[in-house]
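Design job #97: recover the sequence.
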C-alpha cells in the first residue's frame, strides 16, 4: 500500500485526509483503487465512487478531501487509470463484476455507492443485485440505461491527453466500444429499496432529462432529486461547495437512519 496526504496548508505542510492506494482482483485482472480515511468512525457511512466511461486517476480526490473524515473509496474499473488493461472483457456485466470484486476485497457492507455519468448504469447494475449491502445510492446526471457505443467512439477519445500519454489505453476504449450493448435498467430500479439521491444539471450539456427524472420517480420508493440549474453534465461545477453540501446532507441522513426510511420522494431545483 502507498500512503500520501492530499491538500496543502502552510508552505511545506501537508493537510487533508490520509490516502491509501491498493489493488483488488477480478479473476486475472488487477483493479486499482484509492481510499481515504480507512479508519474513519464507524458512524460515518463509507462512500464508494464509480467514474464515468473513461475515468481519470485523480477524479474523486477533491471530494475525498471535502468529505473527510468520512471513508471514501474511488475505484478504477478495468482498462482505466492504473487498473489492468485486458485485451477483452469490457461488457456491461464485466464492469459490474469489477465493482463486486472491489466490494468483496474491501469487505464493504452498509455503504453508499455513487456513480457519475456512465458510472450510473454500472452502479444501478450492482445495486439491483446487492441491495442488501447498500445504505444509499447517489446517481449523478445520467439515466438508468447503458448505451451501445457508436462506431468511432474509441477513436474520438484517442485525442484526449490522458489517452495520448498512455497509448495502451486505446485497447480498453476499443474493447468498451466493441463489447458495448444497450442495457435498459429502469425495471432493475424496482429491486433497490435503499434511499437514492439523483442530481442532474439544468444546462444544455446535462444528460439527465425531465423524462428520466419522471421514470426514476416511477421506479424508486425513496428518492430525492436535485437539479442544479446552472450545472451541465459535471454537476460538481460551477459550485463545488453546493455539490458537497448536497452530498453531506444526504449522507448525514443515512448516518442517522441507515436504510430505514424508505418512503420519501421529492424533487428540488436550486
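Job complete. Output follows.
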Amino acid at each position: 500500500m502507498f500512503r500520501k496526504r492530499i491538500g496543502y496548508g502552510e508552505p511545506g505542510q501537508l493537510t487533508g485526509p490520509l490516502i491509501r492506494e491498493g489493488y483488488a482482483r477480478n479473476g486475472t485482472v488487477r483493479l486499482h483503487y484509492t481510499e481515504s480515511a480507512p479508519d474513519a468512525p464507524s458512524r460515518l457511512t463509507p462512500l464508494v465512487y464509480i467514474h464515468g466511461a473513461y475515468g481519470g486517476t485523480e477524479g474523486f480526490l477533491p471530494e475525498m478531501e471535502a468529505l473527510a473524515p468520512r471513508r471514501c473509496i474511488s475505484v478504477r474499473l478495468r482498462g482505466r487509470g492504473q487498473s489492468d488493461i485486458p485485451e477483452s472483457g469490457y461488457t456491461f456485466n464485466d464492469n459490474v463484476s469489477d465493482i463486486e470484486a472491489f466490494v468483496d476485497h474491501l469487505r464493504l457492507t452498509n455503504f453508499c455507492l455513487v456513480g457519475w455519468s456512465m458510472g450510473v448504469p454500472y452502479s444501478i447494475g450492482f445495486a439491483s443485485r446487492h441491495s442488501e449491502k447498500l445504505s444509499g445510492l447517489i446517481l449523478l446526471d445520467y439515466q438508468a440505461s447503458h448505451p451501445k457505443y457508436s462506431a468511432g467512439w474509441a477513436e474520438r477519445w484517442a485525442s484526449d491527453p490522458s489517452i495520448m500519454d498512455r497509448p495502451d489505453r486505446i485497447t480498453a476504449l476499443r474493447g468498451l466500444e466493441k463489447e458495448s450493448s444497450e442495457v435498459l435498467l429502469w425495471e432493475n430500479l424496482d429491486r433497490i429499496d435503499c434511499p437514492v439521491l439523483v442530481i442532474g444539471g439544468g444546462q444544455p450539456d446535462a444528460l439527465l432529462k425531465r423524462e428520466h427524472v419522471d421514470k426514476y420517480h416511477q421506479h424508486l420508493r425513496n428518492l430525492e432529486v436535485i437539479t442544479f440549474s446552472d450545472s451541465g453534465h459535471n454537476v460538481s461545477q460551477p459550485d463545488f461547495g453546493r455539490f458537497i453540501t448536497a452530498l453531506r446532507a444526504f449522507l448525514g441522513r443515512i448516518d442517522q437512519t441507515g436504510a430505514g426510511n424508505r418512503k420519501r420522494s421529492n424533487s428540488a431545483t436550486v
